[in-house]
Amino acid sequence: MIRMAYSRVKLRFARGVEVTFANRDKALKQIEKLAEEGIYEPIVIYGPEGCGKTALFKQTYEILESMGYTVIYVNPIEDEEEEWRIRVSPDSRSIVEDVLRVAVGEKGATLVDLAIKIFGILSKRRKLVALLADDIFQAVGLDRAEIYVKRLLNFVEYPPEELEKAFIFVGSSEGITKTRVGRHRWAGIRIMWNMSRDGFRELYEQIPGEKPQFEEIWRLTGGNPGMLKKLYMYSWSADSVIDGIIAARGLKRFIDRLSDTQRRVLLESIEDPDALVFRLREARTRQEKDEIITLIDSLIELNLIVDDVSIRSEHIWIDEPPTTDRDIGIGDETAWQSPLHREAIRKTLKTHQHSDNTRPPTS
Ligand SMILES: Nc1ncnc2c1ncn2[C@@H]1O[C@H](COP(=O)(O)OP(=O)(O)O)[C@@H](O)[C@H]1O
Ligand SMILES: [Mg+2]
């Protein structure tokens, strides 16, 4: 396979601030290897919101083109950089001109369908074709995630004669779809974590202007670049970012609905996220078990925690897996998506008293 050098992509970090794709060397190597060997199934990449999936997909676009692939990138919820809502390698645009013209004006599920259509057309005309479908589950509906993955699997299993290799990446922050997609053998699942300390420092150094010390930012973000972006946008006010999370996820309502057991376990999980699974294993009654399971599921659905950090096999991760570090909310088995997510829960628990007035006050 012909391989040309590729450059690191420029990414929009905030208004007027551009950064160069930093670090993630291991991920880039893994991607090159996959593209060289060819994939057997679509690969769905899960990871905390803001961990850098979209950034990685944009860099992947660059890598794949340098390897001779015709690439289609789609992101139906992209609202900042229009040129990244749908993008097709320049050398193939004329083949799909008509569909592409319609697609550019579309959003949501229709845009995803058109991107898949373009992928289908190009698969019959080119030897190496890649589809990078970023954040598509929200657009097509979380309950339809598996159907879309199955559709994509068909391309890999029954490729047109002309197609030598297909490459398919699907990106999602919706941890709740993971079990649905994972229960069939229709896709390979890879998990991506926040940036490593050194990698994150490379990004931090690129942020202009006066900024808090690296240590402080690391302790707040745990290496989540999206949280760094939020902090930057809110003039480094962690409180504003925390309030934003509380509002966006409706955390007050969530906390209100918790039973006493759930509240107690949640409080413990702030100190150690593994308390969730420990308490589940210890639960004596069926009801207690059910309540803790519901709590864990809700935290996953709200994109606050990730529950598979204990999986250590290499091939399930893209880039480096997280290492246990309770200071930034990473346990052996469960992790807060970032320390700021954890703070949002801590603050809501503290300020939002239990609405059940029948309980005696605790000291
Ligand atoms: N490896 C990286 N190098 C430089 N900047 C990054 C990197 N990863 C993420 N970012 C920055 O952080 C922001 C959030 O990352 P993004 O890729 O949108 O996260 P996700 O798609 O996982 O929610 C991006 O807008 C980008 O500016
Ligand atoms: Mg994204």
From TrEMBL:
GO MF terms held by the record: ATP binding
Organism, scientific name: Ignisphaera aggregans (strain DSM 17230 / JCM 13409 / AQ1.S1)
A family per Pfam: ATPase_2
Gene3D superfamilies from the UniProt entry: P-loop containing nucleotide triphosphate hydrolases (3.40.50.300)
Protein name: ATPase
Domain ATPase as annotated: residue spans: 21-231
